[in-house]
Structure formats: structure tokens, C-alpha cells
Design a protein that fits this description.
Number of strands of chain A: 14
Oligomer: heterodimer
CATH superfamily of chain A: 4'-phosphopantetheinyl transferase domain
Low-confidence stretches of chain B: 1-20, 22-34
CATH topology of chain A: Ribosomal Protein L22, Chain A
Largest interface: A-B, 25 and 19 residues
Helix content of chain B: 25-40%
Low-confidence stretches of chain A: 8-15, 273-302
Number of helices of chain B: 4
Shape of chain A: globular
CATH architecture of chain A: Alpha-Beta Complex
Strand content of chain B: under 5%
Structural class of chain B: mainly alpha
Strand content of chain A: 25-35%
């Protein structure tokens, strides 16, 4: 699976509806990952324009957030999702504000194509994740996607191993226990967290469908940065015997964004072609294409 | 449960253990000012706001504030949603761990994941503490 991280600096001179740079949909084996650093968005008039894209429900949601920073981040998250999806449309006049969303039966958000005005139906899947300092949106076609981002420096308030014993699998605890340096251990814990979250989000069936202690994610030996998923099945006659099912159906990528965050991407690969699961080492973390810094379009130039 | 019902209310008695919640327009204790017309059809589900003790709610709020590194003056009450405070999934799990430690209980993951507000956490805690006895 290849992940392209995209971002661009773009100056927009338009006053009313901003012009969105159109995008080509990702290829089947590709994930596009868009991200924004909230600290880089300072203009209140820009934020006001962004709020025009939001639905009344989304606006209420933003207002419910406690504190200006949280409100701003909630606004930016919705803006990122709407504008990103709008950019993949071939109709350039499409309005990010007219996108409609719905939830699947487990609560995972999806595009409600039937109700979007002027939008062509696309086999597009998306997922967002945010932390205080970074908001990301992943896009795929034909396959569900899950994204999770975390600040690399995020401190865990509990003992990492105690936390892992409580929520992760035995194999994962054993892996973490071999890391003696607490800092390195904490980092691996966070990476595992993002990978596991990304999987649950890709699955889209809520946490009860895949409790964290029922599946192990581990690095694939022989690949650089490759991970695989092994499910621990408790459905055996002998309760002490756990069968592990490791298959290539779910693909993972773990990236570093903006030098400050881990981002895990998980998608389903119905072709399960092991050979194609590679991480391109061109650029800082492989992907084909336009990689870069942060996505801040609509920077006004007044 | 901190509510009392008049004899004319016919409904399923609920024990602490069941997750069904009863709420009225007015929160907390239900007294005779409940406007209730027996001739109207009784809804099959009513819900009650905040059945948990204030002390539990306060303790939960304290733990939440600590986990999310909130300022002392940040208002955290029963109805407060963790998400509104900027808690992400990792925060929520850490909050659960903090609550488990503080109350010496263990929350099943599926139940823990469903906790979205301070009062839901407090109610689940009281349910689990109650079962321990």
C-alpha cells in the first residue's frame, strides 16, 4: 500500500468562494493523507469563511467545544474533510458546503452521495483523526480506510506497561517489555496505539467489534516499516489455546508527519497481494508524489 | 437510584444493574411536581438525568480534569461530554484507567468505550461498586 501525503501552500485571491485545487482520486492501492496544523491558521476572517462550509449541526458541534482552541480545531477538522472531498470532484464549481454526510450503522461517518447537490458519486472513502496540534484526513477508493494520529511527544499518565497489560495483547505487552529505555518504550506504545486505532476505524464497526486485546499488530520482519495484523481467536475448545490468524487483508502504514506526529493508516486490501505491500523509501517516508509540509490552502493574501 | 415514583406510574422497575435510563424533563429527584396524566399513554421508556451521587460526579470530574490537564476553573459537571473537552480516544482510555484505580473497579471495555459524559462514568462506577458489595 502506498500512502501519499499531500499538502501545498496555496495563495488564493478570491474573495467569495475560494478556489479549490482539484485532485485526482487515489489509485486503488493508494491512500492520500491530507493534514493541517491548526497553529498555522491564525486569520479569524479565514476561519469565518471556513465556517460557511459547515452544516448547522456541525456548527452546533463546534460551539459545544469548550474553549476557543478546541472550537477552532473542530472547525478546521470539518473544513478539511469537506474541502478535501470536494477537491476530488471533477466539477470545479462544487461547493464544499453542499456535501452531506451520514453514519453507517455503527456510527462511522461516510459521504451521503444521494443527498449532495451537484456531486458525482464516487467510490471514495475517508476517515479523519485529530490531536490538539494536527488534523488529518485519509482518502481511498474502493476500500475502507482508518487513520489515527498522535503527537510523538504525548505523555502517557499511567505506566506504559500497566496500560498495555490492561488493553493490549500479550504479544504486544511482551514486545513493549523488551524495550528498556522508557522513552523508546513510550514511543513504541504510541505507535502501536495509532496502528490499533487505525484498524478499528478502518473496520468501521465500533470498538466492540475489535477490542484492542483481541488483535496483535506487529512489525513484519524483512520489511521496513511494514506491519501485519494477527487476530487472537478465543473460539476454541481449549480455553488456553488461542489460535492466531494473520492475514494480509489489512494493510498498515506508519508515518511521521511534520516531524512531530505519528500517523497510522489502515486499509483493506481485497487483493491481499503481499508483494505489493512495500514502503517506498523515496522521500522521508515513502509515497509516490507530492509530499510535503502542511496543508494550508486558502491562505489569504490581503 | 435516587428517584421515587408515585404508585400511579406503571412501568418496569429498574435495578441499578440494568443500563436502561429514565429521564424526565426536570432532572434529579422526582417529586409530585411531575406532571403526569395517567390517561395518556405511558411511554415505554423514560429517562432520568443523573442518578449518580454528587460525590461520585465530583471525583470523576477531578480525574477527568487531571487527565486532560484542564485548568482548575474549567467547568466540568455531570453533563459534560469528554469530547467537548477535547478528549480523544487515548484520553478516554486513560480516564477509564484513572477511574478504575480511584474506585478499585474494572470496567468492561465495551462499556467503557460507551462512556461519553461525566455522569455516564459516575453511573457506571456506582453500578460496579454496587456489584462489588
Amino acid at each position: 500500500m502506498r500512502t501519499s501525503v499531500m499538502s501545498q501552500m496555496q495563495r488564493s485571491f478570491s474573495i467569495d468562494l475560494p478556489s479549490l485545487i482539484p485532485l485526482q482520486l487515489p489509485s486503488r492501492r493508494e491512500t492520500h493523507l491530507w493534514y493541517i496544523l491548526p497553529d498555522e491558521v491564525k486569520s479569524t476572517s479565514l476561519l469565518k469563511r471556513y465556517s460557511q462550509f459547515l452544516s448547522p449541526i456541525e456548527k452546533d458541534r463546534v460551539d459545544q467545544m469548550r474553549g476557543d482552541e478546541l472550537k477552532k480545531n473542530a472547525l478546521l477538522a470539518r473544513t478539511l474533510v469537506r474541502t478535501t472531498i470536494a477537491r476530488y470532484q471533477t466539477n470545479k464549481a462544487v461547493d464544499p458546503g453542499s456535501l452531506m454526510f451520514k453514519k453507517n450503522m455503527y456510527g462511522k461517518p461516510e459521504v451521503d452521495w444521494q443527498n449532495c447537490k451537484n456531486y458525482n458519486v464516487q467510490p471514495l472513502h475517508f476517515n479523519i483523526s485529530h490531536t490538539d496540534s494536527l488534523i488529518a484526513c485519509g482518502v481511498t477508493v474502493h476500500a475502507p480506510v482508518g487513520i489515527d494520529v498522535e503527537d510523538k511527544e504525548r505523555k502517557i499518565k499511567h505506566d506504559v506497561l500497566a496500560f498495555a497489560k490492561r488493553f493490549y495483547t500479550t504479544d504486544e505487552v511482551n514486545f513493549l517489555a523488551t524495550i528498556l529505555d522508557p522513552e523508546a518504550q513510550r514511543k513504541e506504545f504510541i505507535k502501536l496505539w495509532t496502528l490499533k486505532e487505525a484498524y478499528v476505524k478502518a473496520l468501521g464497526k465500533g470498538f466492540s467489534a475489535a477490542p484492542f486485546n483481541t488483535f496483535t499488530i506487529q512489525s513484519k520482519p524483512g520489511t521496513e516499516g511494514g506491519y501485519s495484523l494477527c487476530k487472537t481467536s478465543e473460539v476454541t475448545a481449549n480455553p488456553l489455546e488461542k489460535t492466531e490468524e494473520c492475514n494480509g487483508r489489512w494493510k498498515f502504514d506508519l508515518l511521521e508527519l511534520a516531524g512531530s506526529h505519528y500517523a497510522a493508516v489502515c486499509t483493506e486490501d481485497d487483493q491481499a497481494d503481499e508483494g505489493a505491500f512495500s514502503v517506498d523509501t523515496e522521500g522521508s517516508i515513502g509515497f509516490s508524489g507530492l509530499f510535503i509540509t502542511s496543508f494550508s490552502f486558502l491562505q489569504e493574501l490581503l | 437510584m435516587a428517584t421515587t415514583f408515585s404508585a400511579s406510574v406503571s412501568m418496569q422497575a429498574t435495578s441499578l444493574a440494568t443500563p436502561s435510563r429514565i429521564s424526565f424533563q426536570k432532572p434529579a429527584l422526582v417529586r409530585t411536581n411531575l406532571s403526569f396524566n395517567p390517561r395518556r399513554s405511558i411511554p415505554t421508556r423514560l429517562s432520568v438525568s443523573c442518578a449518580a451521587k454528587p460525590e461520585t460526579v465530583a471525583k470523576v470530574s477531578e480525574i477527568v480534569k487531571k487527565q486532560l490537564s484542564l485548568k482548575e476553573d474549567q467547568k466540568v459537571v455531570a453533563e459534560t461530554k469528554f469530547a467537548d473537552l477535547g478528549a480523544d480516544s487515548l484520553d478516554t482510555v486513560e480516564i477509564v484507567m484513572g477511574l478504575e484505580e480511584a474506585f478499585d473497579i474494572e470496567m468492561a471495555e465495551e462499556k467503557a468505550q460507551k462512556i461519553a459524559t461525566v455522569e455516564q462514568a459516575a453511573e457506571l462506577i456506582e453500578e460496579l461498586v454496587g456489584l462489588k458489595k
